[in-house]
Design brief:
This protein is mainly α. The chain has helices at 2-39, 43-104.
């Protein structure tokens, strides 16, 4: 059950990352390209491009980076738990074999 919860969290993080990239970052870049392409000219256009390029796009990029880091950290934690489970299972199997040999023989 815990694994399903963690997998659900990872799935939600992936969804959020896609939303950030598709619904925020891509449209901002498209707007900048449209303005740079000449759809809007002048000081206001230049200020808009500068503001979006220097503040908004990097900010959204940082959000995406944080989501990716969180995904990697959660996956690392899952890997550590899996290794610990395997080690515990190996110890239990070893003890079961030991007790089995003592009582059967």
């Amino acid at each position: 059950m815990a694994r399903r919860v963690v997998e659900g969290v990872l799935s939600q993080l992936t969804s959020q990352l896609n939303i950030v990239q598709e619904m925020a970052l891509a449209p901002m870049r498209a707007m900048v390209q449209a303005v740079v392409g000449g759809i809007w000219v002048g000081e206001g256009a230049n200020a808009f491009v500068e503001e979006v390029s220097s503040l908004m796009i990097p900010g959204v990029g940082r959000v995406a980076e944080h989501i990716q880091i969180m995904q990697k950290n959660i996956q690392h934690a899952v890997d550590v738990i899996d290794r610990a489970d395997e080690q515990v299972q190996a110890k239990i199997n070893g003890l079961a074999d030991l007790f089995g040999s003592i009582y059967s023989g």
